[in-house]
Amino acid sequence: MAGQTGQQQRDRGFREAVLGRCFVQDAVERFGDGAPEIIRQHERDHIHQVATETIVQGVPTDQVFTGSEHDDPAAAAEQQPLEKHVPRMPYYRNNLTALSQRYNLYFAAYENRIFVYRPKSALRHALPREPNLILATKPDKVAIHVGGTLDPRFHHQTNHITTGFLGREEVLVAAYDDGSVIAWYIGSIADYVDRRTAAVPTPFFRDNVGRSAWGIVVHQQSRLIAVSSNRFEVTVFAFALSRLPEALWRRDRPYNHCEACVFKRKRNWRIVIPLGDGGHNIPNISIWDDEDGFAEKVVAIDINGTLWILDIWKPKTKAIQIQHRTHVTHHWNFRHQMGWGVAVLPYESFLPAHSAAELLGLEEGDIMNSKPPLAGRWVETQKSLANVRNHPSPLSAQAVPEPEPNEIFALAPMGFEVPPLDGGAWIDDELAGNPPGGNGPALTIDVDDSDDEEEDSDSDGSAPLNMQPPAETLSSDSSDTDGSAPLHEDEIEDDSDSDGSAALPNFLEAQDWFTQLPVNYLPEQDPPPLANAYPIDAALGALEKNKNQPGWHTRIESEIEPFRDMVYLPHEGKAFSWPDSLTGRVRFHKRERVRNRNTVDQDPDVLDELASRSCIMRTYEYDIELRSINVDDGAAVVCRDPINFDPAQNMFMQHAERLNMIIHVPELSLVVVGSAIGRVVLLTPTRTPYPHGLRGEGFKVKNGFRIDWVLPTRADEEAGKRPNRSLYGIAVGPVQEAGAPGCLLRADGAPAPSPATRRYRLMLHYRDHRILSYDIGRDEKGEHLLVF
After folding, report:
1. Where is this region: Disordered (predicted)?
2. Backbone angles phi, psi at 281, to 5 degrees
3. pLDDT tens-place string over residues 92-146
4. Nearest 5 degrees, angle CA 309-CA 313-CA 314?
5. What is the pTM of this model?
6. Nearest in space to 304 (alpha carbons), one of 317, 318, 322
C-alpha cells in the first residue's frame, strides 16, 4: 500500500506518517525537448525587465483565445513553435494552482490565462502535454480604469485561484491584479473537456473590487464569494437566493431594517467590509461559520501580521484586532514577520489527543513556555522538528533557541481589541499607514444617529509583499502610475446616463451615482422563478414591499428598477443601489479608503459560541500559529520556522519567504501549509478531551497541532526531485476512483468511501514547471497519515 522510507527515529508518541514514492513530471515531459531553455529565457527576461509581448488593454494580443488547441484556427493552420506552448509565470503572487473536488481536473493560472488539465494517471497524476482547455480573460472597462499594482503595463494577471462549492455547484474563482474577480462553473468546464462538442465555457460571474485582489473564499452553504484587496477591505458577493434556507428564516435573531434587507438575499448584494485603524493589504481571508454552518464573520490577515475579525451582516460593530505575535505594546517594532495566511479550523476536524506527544508532537519537557511575566500566554513547539522523519533540514532539539523574552503574544479578552501603540503601531516605512481624510458620503438607511465615520486617504497601493520589485511595478495613488486609465467620458463606450465630467471628482462630490433608498423601502414585485439557488443576473431578486410607507412606491419606481444590485456598508450601517454607469462604478472603486472606527463591541455571546466550535490558524513568513479567541482555552501554540530553509544564495527565491498557501482537508484532519520558498508542511490539528486542557509547568494547552511531514523530504531533495526554484502553487484533491465515468472523481450515486480508503493527491507546482505529486490518506483509526 505505502512503502516506508527514511531512517528510523525514536517513537514520537503517536502514529506518525508513512512516506512512499514521490512522482515527478518535469518541463521536458510536460512540454518537450527545449522547454528548460525557454524557461531560463523567461527568467532572464524577468531579471532584465525585458517586455516581449505586445500589450493591448492590459493583456498580450496573442493570449486572448479561449478553448482548446483543436478550436484555435491559428493553431490548426500551422504548427506553433514550442515557445507558444510554454507559458510564462508571473512573480510575487498567491496560490496559482487548484484541483477540483468533484472532477478529475487540474487548474494552473499563467498570467491572464488558466490552463485546464485532465490528469492522465491516477497513480502519477501526470498532466497531458497540451491543456484540455485554456480560459483566457481580458480586462473589462472597469478593470482598465482600476489598473494594476504589480505590473501597471500587463495589469490583468492572476494573483490567486481556488475552487469551492456554491450550494451544489462547484466553481473556479480567479482574482486578478487589476481587481477583477471572475468565476466559472466547473461542471461546464468538465462537460467541454469530456465531449469537446459542448459550448466553450464562459464565466457566470465577473466583477471588480477596486484594487489588486488577493484572498478568495467560496462559501457553500451561504452561497457567497469573499475577496480581499489592497484597498484594506474585504468584498463579499452575496448572490440573490430564490428562497432562504429554512435554518435561516426560522432563526430567532434581532434584525434592524438594513440588516434584514441584506439578509433576505432577494437581490445580489456587494458587502464591503473595511479593516480598522492600522490595517493594511490583505493576502488571505477565511470565513467563520455560525452553529448552522452559515457565514457569520470574515477573518482576515494583513501583511502587518494582524488578524481581523469582521461582522458580515451586523451594522456598526467594531473590527476585532489581534496583533502580531511579536507585537509589544508601547515598544517599537523595527522588524517583525509579515502575515500571510489564515484559516478558521472547526474542532470537528481535530484529532483527539491524550498526551503532549499526541497533542503537539513532542514530550512535555520539550515544550518551551513564554518568558515571565507572559508565561502561559503562548508556547513553542519547534523542538518537535528534530523528530520529524526525513525532514529536509533536520534540526537538533538542543540547538533550538529559547523564546525571545520580549516577544508578546497578545491574547485579548473576548470581544476586546488589543490596545495599539500611542499614535498608531510602528511599521516599516514602505508599509506606513494612511493619515485620516474627510467624511464619507451621507448615504441613507442609517441604523442610528451616530456621527459619520472618517475616511483615510488613499496613500498606499503596495502589494502584500515583503519585497522590492522593479521600480515600474510600484504604484502611487497620488498619480497615474498605478497602471489605471484616466477616467474621461469621451473614452468610454457607455450607453448609461452620466454627468459628462472629464476628470474624476472627489468621492464626496460624486453623490449622484447613488440611488438612495428610504429606511423601510421594500419594493412590491416578487422575483421571477429561478432555476438555480443563487442567480447571478441582476434582474433576479427583489425586496418585498413595506405597505406601511405610502408615497414611497411611486417615487422609488421612478428612480430605481425593481431588480437593481445593491451595496451594503456594514461599518456605516448604510445601503444603496449599485450604479449602472461605468463612470459611477469607477468612481466607487476610486473612492478614498475608509476605516472601521466603530466602538460598539461585537456580540460577546456570538463570539463565545464561535470560539466554542473552532479556532484560528495564522501563518507568517516562517512561523505557524494556532490560537483561540477565548482566553479560557489556554496558551496559543507556535512552531517557528518549520521548513528551515535559507534562500539567501538563490536569487530566484528572493521575497519568497512566506507561508501564504493554506489548504484545510477536514476529511483527513489535515492542514497543508505551503511556502513559496518551495516546501510544504503537513500538520494535524489536535485537541485534548480534558475540560481543563493539558497542563504543564506554568501553562495549559487545549488545542494544538503536530507536524507529520515537511515535503519534499530529505530523500527526495537529495535525489534531485525538488528544483532550485520557488513554489508556484499547491493543490489538494481526491484521487479519481476506479469506475468513475468521464471527468468525475466518483460515480454518481456511489457510496462515499471511508477515510481509510479515500486517497487524496497533493501536487506541488514549481516555477520551472516541474510538478511533484504525493498521495495522502488516513488509516482506519483516523490517526495514521499515509503519504503514498
Report:
1. 421-503
2. -60, 145
3. 999 999 999 999 999 999 999 999 999 987 678 899 999 999 999 999 999 999 9
4. 80
5. 0.80
6. 322
